[in-house]
Amino acid sequence: MNQGPIGSDFHGSSGVKPFKTQPAYKAYQSPYGPKYTVKPNIRGWTMGGATKLGLTLAGFGGVAGVFAIFFFSDVPKVRNDIMIKIPLIGNHFVKEIPPSDNPF
């Protein structure tokens, strides 16, 4: 009995699973046990975990961007439009062809 993707039955051949719902009752806390709270989360991701993941992904993205710029630095369009305009190292990417090497 498959009721579609939002249905409440699991059907093995289609792999449709019901959504998990939070229980309507509050978990029991003993007055003699430790006092604890559940951190607010979205699908298991807390604010601290999401911040740590975001900073890690930003670091990897920045390194990948710098790698891509320097990897493609010998492409004339990248060299002339981006690399030459970098303040301290721009002069390193200026390529002047001597007249003796010009085939025309």
List key phrases describing it.
mainly alpha, 104 residues, 2 helices, 0% strand, 30% helix, elongated
Summary of the model, kept short:
The protein is 30% helix and 0% strand. By secondary structure, the protein is mainly α. The longest helix is centred in the middle third of the chain and has 25 residues.
Textual characterization of the structure:
This protein is 30% helix and 0% strand. The model has no long low-confidence stretch (mean pLDDT 82). It has 2 helices and no strands. With 104 residues, it is mainly alpha-helical.
Topology of this structure?
Layout: H1 47-71, H2 76-81
Low-confidence stretches at least 5 residues in length (pLDDT < 50)? none
**What Rg, in angstroms, do the CA atoms define?**
29 Å
End-to-end Cα distance = 78 Å
Mean pLDDT score, rounded? Answer: 82
- Shape, per Cα inertia axes: elongated
Sequence of secondary-structure elements: HH
Largest sheet: none
- Number of DSSP-assigned strands: 0
